[in-house]
Amino acid sequence: MNYQKYRPYPPMAMPDRKWPNRQITEAPIWCSVDLRDGNQALEVPMTFQQKLDFFTFLVKTGFKEIEVGFPAASDTEYNFCRALIEQKLIPDDVTIQVLTQSREHIIRKTFEALRGVKNAIVHLYNSTSTLQRDVVFQMSKEEVTQLAVDGAVMIQDLAREYGAENYHFEYSPESFTGTEMEYAVEICNAVLDVWKPTPEKKVIINLPSTVEMATPNVYADQIEYVCEHIHDRDSVIISLHAHNDRGCAVASSELGLMAGADRVEGTLFGNGERTGNADIMNIAMNMFSQGIDPKLNFDNIEEVVQMYEKSTGLFVHPRHPYAGKLVYTAFSGSHQDAIKKGMARGKEHPEYWEVPYLPIDPADVGRSYDPIIRINSQSGKGGVAYILEQNFGLILPKNLQKDFGPMVTKVSDTNNKELLPQELYDLFMKEYVNRTEPLKLLHYSEAIRGTDQSSIEAEMLYSGRNVTIHGEGNGIISAFCKAIEGLLGIDVEVVNYSEHSLEYGSKSRAITYIQMRCDGKDYYGAGISSNITKSSLRAIVTAINKILKA
Ligand SMILES: CC(=O)SCCNC(=O)CCNC(=O)[C@H](O)C(C)(C)COP(=O)(O)OP(=O)(O)OC[C@H]1O[C@@H](n2cnc3c(N)ncnc32)[C@H](O)[C@@H]1OP(=O)(O)O
Ligand SMILES: CC(C)C(=O)C(=O)O
C-alpha cells in the first residue's frame, strides 16, 4: 500500500488548551440534519411523504431545530418546505433550518420557499479550505471572503424584505478543518460584521469537520481556538458538524463540546455523506449514561430504528451503540456470569445502575432483559443457569450447573449454532428430568414407623419387566435408594438434595434435584410432580437411569 502518497495532518501549537480539563455537564442545542445532509447522501433520496413522517418523528423525539432541506435543490425539497409552512406542520417551539450556497438565485429561491414561516434559520455556506479555494473556486482568500460577505448581505436584505424578526442566520465555513485557523476566524468575523448579532439575537457559526482529517483532539483545539478569537462571543452560538471519515465523529463532537461549543448538528445513527455525520442518538445517550438529561427522548429505540430504516433504506448495524440488535446480549461465559450477578445485586441496590458489561439499563431504551444472555459454544454455566431461571423458573444447584454446562457447549459446538432458551430447556428436560428408561416408577406406597423410620414398597418397570421392590431407611429417600440397591446390586449415596416449587397456586408443581454418587462418580437427576415425594422419587429414578446408562 502506497502510504507515501499521504501526508500527516499538521499539528496545532496550543500549549494552554483548556478543554482536556473540562466535562460535559448539560445537553447542547441539538439540530437534526437528517432531512438535508442525511437525505443528500442517500442512493434514493426520501420522498415527500418519507420526509414528512421523519420530520414528525424528529419533533416527537424532542428536536427544536431541524434542517429540513436545501429548497433550491429540487421541487421535492422546495415543496416540502412549502408544505410544512402552508399546512402549519411546524410546532411553535420548533425552528426549521434551510441550507443555501452563497449564490444569488439560490438565496432568492430559498427565501421564496420560506414565505410565511414563523421561525427559520437560513444557513449560508461556502468552502474555505486551502484545497477548495484552489481547486473548486480558484479564488484568493480575499475573494472567498467576499463571496461569503456577499451572501451574508443578500440574506440580510432579503430577511428584511420578508420580515426580519422571523429569520435567524447561520454561517458555515465549509471544510473548516482544512482551513488555516486564522483565516477561518477572519471569514467568520467578516460575516458577523455584516449580521451584527446581539446576545438577544445570536448568530450561529457552524464549524464543520466536512471531511474528518485528524484525531478528535485536533478538532477540539480548533473549536477552542475559534471560541477564543471570534468577535462577539456572547452573541454567537458555536455549532459543531462533524463527519465520520475516520470513525470519530461522535468523539469529535464530544470533545468539541468540551472545547466550548454550544450546539451540535448531526443525524440519527450517523447517516450522511460517505461514512456519515455524527450520530446524535449516540452522543445524547452517552450523556444519558453519565446522568445528564439529554433533552431528547430515545425510550423506544426500536421505533427509532424502524423509522430510520423505513425512511433511508439503510440498516442499523447489530452492534450499533445503544440500538443494535446484539448490544444487550452477551455470549461469552464470563460476561454472562458477571451480568447475572450484577442484575441480582441491582435488585438489592436499585438507586444506581451498576451491571458489568452493560453501560445502561436496556429497559431505558425499551429493550428487554430477555436476550441479554444467549447461549453458544462460548457460553458458561452461569449464562445457562440464568436463562433457565429467567425463562422457566428452574433454579439449578451449582453442581448441576457444572454438569449441564459442558453438555450445552458440546451441542452448540457440534451444531455450530446458538441454542435458544426453548432448546436449552428441552435439552435439560431430556437429560435430567423424569427419565424412565430402563427404570420407571409405576406405583409406590409408604409406611412410616415411629419418628425416623420409613419403608417403601414400589412397583417398577425395569427393562420391560414389572418388579416390586422393598426398602427401609430413615426417610422415604433412603428407603427407596435401599430398595433400588437391592434390585440392581449397586451402592449409591445421595450427596445433595434440593427442591423448589415451579408455579404458584393450588396446582403448583415442585422440582427436586438429586446428586447421587456411585463408584466415586456423581450423577444428577431431577423430577417434577405436583407431589413432593413423587418428584423426589422421580429424581432418584432419573439419576439411577444415568448410572445404568454410564
Ligand atoms: C458539505 C455539504 O454537504 S454542502 C451541501 C451540498 N449539498 C448539495 O449540493 C445538494 C444540493 N445541491 C444541488 O442540488 C446543486 O448543487 C445546486 C442546485 C445547489 C446548484 O446546482 P448547479 O449550479 O447546477 O451545479 P453545482 O452545484 O455543480 O455548481 C457548482 C458551482 O457552484 C459553485 N459553488 C459551490 N458551492 C458554492 C457555495 N457554497 N457558494 C457559492 N458558490 C458555490 C462552484 O464553485 C461552481 O461554480 P462554477 O460553476 O463557477 O465552477
Ligand atoms: C454545509 C456544511 C455544514 C456541511 O454539510 C458540511 O460541511 O459537511
TrEMBL record:
Mg(2+) binds at D37, H241, H243, N277. Residues 435-550 are annotated as: Regulatory domain. Its main location: cytoplasm. Its EC number is 2.3.3.13. GO terms for cellular component: cytoplasm. InterPro entries: 2-isopropylmalate_synth_dimer (IPR013709), AIPM/Hcit_synth_CS (IPR002034), Aldolase_TIM (IPR013785), IPM_Synthase (IPR005668), LeuA-like_post-cat (IPR054692), LeuA_allosteric_dom_sf (IPR036230), LeuA_N_DRE-TIM (IPR039371), PYR_CT (IPR000891). Its cofactor is Mg(2+). GO terms for biological process: L-leucine biosynthetic process. Pathway: Amino-acid biosynthesis; L-leucine biosynthesis; L-leucine from 3-methyl-2-oxobutanoate: step 1/4. Keywords: Acyltransferase, Amino-acid biosynthesis, Branched-chain amino acid biosynthesis, Cytoplasm, Leucine biosynthesis, Magnesium, Metal-binding, Transferase. Gene3D superfamilies: 3.30.160.270, Aldolase class I. Pfam families: HMGL-like (PF00682), IPMS_D2 (PF22615), LeuA_dimer (PF08502). It is found in: Cytoplasm. It catalyses: 3-methyl-2-oxobutanoate + acetyl-CoA + H2O = (2S)-2-isopropylmalate + CoA + H(+). Signal peptide: none annotated. Residues 28-302 form the Pyruvate carboxyltransferase domain. The keyword Transferase applies. GO terms for molecular function: 2-isopropylmalate synthase activity; acetyl-CoA C-acetyltransferase activity; magnesium ion binding. The keyword Transferase applies. Catalyzes the condensation of the acetyl group of acetyl-CoA with 3-methyl-2-oxobutanoate (2-ketoisovalerate) to form 3-carboxy-3-hydroxy-4-methylpentanoate (2-isopropylmalate). Homodimer. Belongs to the alpha-IPM synthase/homocitrate synthase family. LeuA type 2 subfamily. This is 2-isopropylmalate synthase. It comes from Bianquea renquensis. The lineage of its organism: Bacteria, Bacillati, Bacillota, Clostridia, Eubacteriales.
